[in-house]
Each structure stands twice: as structure tokens, then as C-alpha cells.
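User: Please predict the structure of the protein below. I'd like the answer in C-alpha cell form so I can feed it into my own downstream comparison script.

Assistant: Understood. Taking the following sequence of 179 residues as input:
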Amino acid sequence: MFRIMSPDEFQTNPWKNGGGITREVARHPVGEDWQWRISIAEVGTDGPFSLFPGMTRILTVIDGAGIDLLAVDGLLEARLHRPVHFSGDQDVNAKLVSGPVHDLNLIYDATAVEAAVNVILGPATVNCEAGTAGFLCLSGAVTVSGDGLPVGAFALGTGADIALEADATGILITLRDRA
């Protein structure tokens, strides 16, 4: 069963470091903390990223040219529709490539969860029977178990097919508990 959420249902929060805002789409709570969180951040200026010690991050630019992520161990070039992985323990400074961006963030505990982020281009059908899946519709006609998923909306759940027409693009997040 999948739940479809419109953007007005996303929870707006300040960044942990106070440098911007994020719209939290979903999280899996564990006690008072969370095991994973999906959010969409607005990045309008260069500056440091928030630290998330013990967590792994996958960032995917969904609008805008991109961000250069500068860390002690090198440069990550986060470009439109190209997911990049990095540790939440790392001090990362962001430099916008050519103006503001929006990015989809998955932050998760890699000791408890296996995760992947993939850009899906239509036409395609994705079967989401195992684990938890999330899908952000970026463009075009998308259905989840036959129900329309509007552009900007997010579907979260398990046990369904996600179908993209030829003009559609979206981001698929898969999450599986480690055994």
C-alpha cells in the first residue's frame, strides 16, 4: 500500500545548522530519533552543510544546475539528476554552480538500512514489492497502483507498481532493513 503526499503536506523545518530550510517528506522513527529521513532542501547560497554523525547521505539535485560539495577528502559534483553519496560525519561546504537549487536528500543509518536512490526515465514500470519505496514525480504522467501521482508529489509504501509514461521522470528511493 502506498500513500501519496502532495507538497503542501511536507513539513517545513530550518536546517540543523540554520543555513536554510528543508521540507521533510517522510522519516522512519526509532525511539526519539530516526533511522532514515527524506527531504527536499532549498539551497540558495554557498555555505556549510549540517552534520549528521553516524548517518549516510545521498543527495540528488532535482532543480538547478548543481552544487560542488567540498570536503577534506575531495570534491563531489552534485549535478541535476545525478545522486551523490557522502558521510553525514564529513564537514562539507557547498558552492552553487550557477544559482539556487532544490535537492532531494536521503539521510539514513547504513548499519540498519540498505538504501538506493535512482533516477527513473519513462517509459518504465518499477515493481516495489520488497522493502519500502519512495517516489518523487519530477515530470510527466506517473501512476502508483493505477492512481495518478502529480508532479511534485511523493508516494511512499510497498507492494505496488509505479508506471511512468514516455515523458515522465522521477526519483526512486528504496529502503530495506539489514538482516
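That's the full C-alpha cell string. The two ends are 23 Å apart (CA to CA).
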